[in-house]
Amino acid sequence: MSIDLSQFYKLFFEETAEHLAEMETLLLALDVAQPSMDDLNAIFRAAHSIKGGAATFGFSDMTDVTHILETLLDKLRKQEMTLTVEMVNAFLEAGDVISMQLARHRGEGEEDTGAVLAVCEKLARLTVDLPVSTKPAVSEDLSYGLFTETAEEQAKQEDEQGFGFFEDIPDPVADAGAVSPQSSVPVTAEKAPETAHYGRRAIDAEGAEDVRTGKRATDKMVTSQAEATSIRVGVEKVDQLINLMGEIVITQAMLTQAAEDETSENENLQRSLHQLQRNTRDLQEAVMSIRMMPIAFVFSRFPRLVRDLAGKLNKQVEIRMVGESTELDKGLIEKISDPLTHLVRNSLDHGIESPEKRVAVGKNPAGTITLKAFHQGGNVVIEVSDDGGGLSRGRILQKARERGMPLHEDMTDQDIWALIMEPGFSTAEVVTDLSGRGVGMDVVRRNIDDLGGRVELGSVEGKGMTVTIRLPLTLAILDGLSVAVGAQTYIIPLNAIVESLPGYSADLKTMSGGHVVHVRGQYLAIIALHRIFNIQTKITQPEQGILVLLEANGKKIALAVDELIGQHQVVLKSMESNYRRIPYISGATIMGDGRVALILDVAALVRINQEVSLREAA
């Protein structure tokens, strides 16, 4: 009976991507002078697994490349050849080519035949120690002479009945006395190279089976127990689970509201509702943890990026990563990747100086870029720092004057650093095709704003620069403060609130651009919410209303509202998917009484004041 292997494509694509990522990480960490045999074996196993899976599904293009790659890796791990930097470069290029081939089979791109031929030629040329009968010969045949098999190898493949991918389980009794040809010590825990068993069952001596990985029980005894405690879950299923969790939160809020409206007290009802609230919170945290992923998924791509770009720029750069296990929502993981890539490129191109310049000022010729992630309160903080030249206050002010930007004498460093995040602002003497410090920084800030986060800059001229990004743990649920304006209810994200001020008439000042309030030595612009959304307010005098002080991107405003209702944990619903995009609104939620409340976009509200200031200055 024939088996439709296409049903297992998705699993193969995911596992191959994981093997490629593992290969790249191990290759970048290799000490060329003294390579770890464990690492070389792990790289070989990853290549072998990719080759086995590709052969199973008939992806011959991937099989051709991985076969040549595997041949060279096999000789290295057997210490028949000496590892060189050129080999590591070739392995990395081969990984790129396999990734390209994988993308083509996924339907996500085209294959560059020239790149495939080039990497195969390079690998074949490096395998110079092969016996004469199998030395590579450059030709249009992708095998380069490396696929010539001896009669013994062919017989072995015929015996395996599956070309090594669906091998029979050996007799454990016979294996117990197996002797390693190198040590004459019985081998009892030697893990064989991983093989692909997509859709087939590998059954151990006790009858246990693992359809997911096809690994035998003996393999699992050698490896970590982490495999048995993890599971691969489709993102769509997790999204559905999160949506259901949101509905439970809404139901719980409705029950609480109904209980509060009861004229007669019902102690049992109140106790049950409190228990429901605790259980709901626990369930919510458990559900959200399913979607949380370590930021290592993003950080892991940067060692290769730094290595390649440093070579192009003739710079010596090391990368340090701290807190890779810090977890945040998968949606944030996907969206934070591009801003971080831009920041790392900036540090490489215009932050880190050339070795000659660094030595001239007494620095180590090799610069350092540090990626750091940690939890702080209800946020995830990500820092991208370098020990390069830092930002120049004088150059930034000079460029700002040339552009006619509004400046004043008592500007703090933070105010000046923020100028580089204005559209098109750059202090780079030479803008390259890699990056330009300042060029695109406004896009970084806008992307972070869209995620409900904020960006902070810190720099010491001649010492380096640090970009700090603060993000919420998740985009699905947030803690917020509900406020009333007329008959409408709005939600303000709690992490954007500094404080609230009732009765502010004494500190109210009038300026040409509107009203400001004096708070602890600062004059803050007052943004009246009822004017923005053109709704009727209940407030007729300033002392009757309440000011909520908000902060985003280092800037503060005072938001005028009628009253504060209370703190809530709300489930975010997308306005764009359910209606359309509304200015100054980041989403919506359903309150306990069933009404819809809009969630304010604090960063957009802060920009109102900045735009007014810029127009007045012009």
Task: Quickly describe the structure.
42% of the residues lie in helices and 19% in strands. The chain has 20 helices and 18 strands. The chain has helices at 9-29, 37-57, 60-77, 85-105, 113-126, 151-160, 172-176, 217-222, 235-261, 267-291, 296-299, 302-313, 330-351, 355-360, 393-402, 413-418, 441-450, 529-532, 575-578, 602-617; strands at 292-294, 316-322, 327-329, 366-376, 379-386, 454-460, 464-472, 477-485, 488-493, 497-502, 508-511, 514-519, 522-528, 546-552, 555-561, 563-571, 585-590, 596-600.
What's the topology here?
Layout: H1 9-29, H2 37-57, H3 60-77, H4 85-105, H5 113-126, H6 151-160, H7 172-176, H8 217-222, H9 235-261, H10 267-291, E1 292-294, H11 296-299, H12 302-313, E2 316-322, E3 327-329, H13 330-351, H14 355-360, E4 366-376, E5 379-386, H15 393-402, H16 413-418, H17 441-450, E6 454-460, E7 464-472, E8 477-485, E9 488-493, E10 497-502, E11 508-511, E12 514-519, E13 522-528, H18 529-532, E14 546-552, E15 555-561, E16 563-571, H19 575-578, E17 585-590, E18 596-600, H20 602-617
Parallel strand pairs: 2-4, 9-18, 13-15
Antiparallel strand pairs: 1-3, 4-5, 5-7, 6-7, 8-9, 8-16, 10-14, 11-12, 12-13, 14-15, 17-18
Helix pairs in contact: 1-2, 1-4, 2-3, 3-4, 3-5, 4-5, 9-10, 12-13, 13-17
Give the tags.
618 residues, alpha+beta, six-stranded mixed β-sheet, five-stranded mixed β-sheet, 20 helices, 42% helix
Plain-language structure description:
About 40% of the residues lie in helices and about 20% in strands. A six-stranded mixed β-sheet has the order 10-14-15-13-12-11. It has a five-stranded mixed β-sheet with strand order 2-4-5-7-6. Strands 16-8-9-18-17 form a five-stranded mixed β-sheet. Strand 8 (about 475-485) and strand 9 (about 490-495) form a beta hairpin. The protein contains 20 helices and 18 strands. Residues about 130-230, about 435-440 and about 610-618 have low confidence and may be disordered. The protein is of the alpha+beta class and about 625 residues long. Helix 3 runs antiparallel to helix 4 (about 85-105) and helix 4 runs antiparallel to helix 5 (about 115-125).
